[in-house]
Amino acid sequence: MSPISERFDGSTFLVRHLNPGVVRNPDLITQITSWLDEAETARLARLINPEHRHAFLVSHGLTRRLLSKVLGCNPSDICFGVTGRQKPVLSHPFNAKAVHFNLAHTQGLTVLAIGPEPMGIDTEWLNRTTKAGLAKRYFTQAEQRDIDYQPPELRQQRFLTYWTLKEAFLKAQAWGIADSLTGFEFELSPPGATLPERIRLRVRDARLTPTLPWRFHHWRIEPEHLISLAVSTQATTDPSIDICPWTDSDWI
């Protein structure tokens, strides 16, 4: 397999995922901790729950290590800023390659996307508890009907498919839930339909018209996680997505 810096060729989006719980090597933990900046170290110190602290550390370590491979620098050299809507962006090092990234996590999984254009990514654990009435609050009637139409054993997955797609789109646009999840809707292929899966965005509120052209991708990561990705592209064909697990050797 070619190095990550070579695969990041200006058209490919990289997606890497891992379970933070498997990262337990003491030397690696020490190394990751040394990469954090003052702001990250302060945020880490404020986390009381050990599991949350560990997930934060591994997630930010993953971000710094993958970015460092793409940019050809040390993980500790990377500096971050935020947009006006508090979306993290890369502020240093600056080079000719435009690099965008987005991080998401859920119970048992962290996922990071890096690419040459803006994107948003989201993930959910299929066994999470979903409150009654959540679909009515955040989903359109068409989306609710589609969820209700599914067999009982598929409704949770269908619900979370819509949820992760909506979150990925909002993150890509640097919007928030306050911008209304019912102002737009997705149309999906029936479960089990022939690939490629159809994912269409339909805007219902003109105020939420996308500022960029978006394409959407969705995966189930066995055994119990979903990932959705929104990527900006001017191309008429789907962009190249390089998605795979992050392994122990990738930290090197």
From TrEMBL:
GO molecular function, one term: transferase activity
Keyword annotations: Transferase
Keyword match Transferase: yes
Span of domain 4'-phosphopantetheinyl transferase: 118-205
Residues of the 4'-phosphopantetheinyl transferase N-terminal domain: 30-113
Family annotation (InterPro entries): 4-PPantetheinyl_Trfase_dom (IPR008278), 4-PPantetheinyl_Trfase_dom_sf (IPR037143), AASDHPPT_N (IPR055066), P-Pant_transferase_sf (IPR050559)
Alphabetized Pfam families for the sequence: AASDHPPT_N, ACPS
PANTHER family, per the entry: L-AMINOADIPATE-SEMIALDEHYDE DEHYDROGENASE-PHOSPHOPANTETHEINYL TRANSFERASE, PHOSPHOPANTETHEINE TRANSFERASE
Similarity-based family: Belongs to the P-Pant transferase superfamily. Gsp/Sfp/HetI/AcpT family.
Protein name per Swiss-Prot or TrEMBL: 4'-phosphopantetheinyl transferase superfamily protein
Organism: Orrella daihaiensis
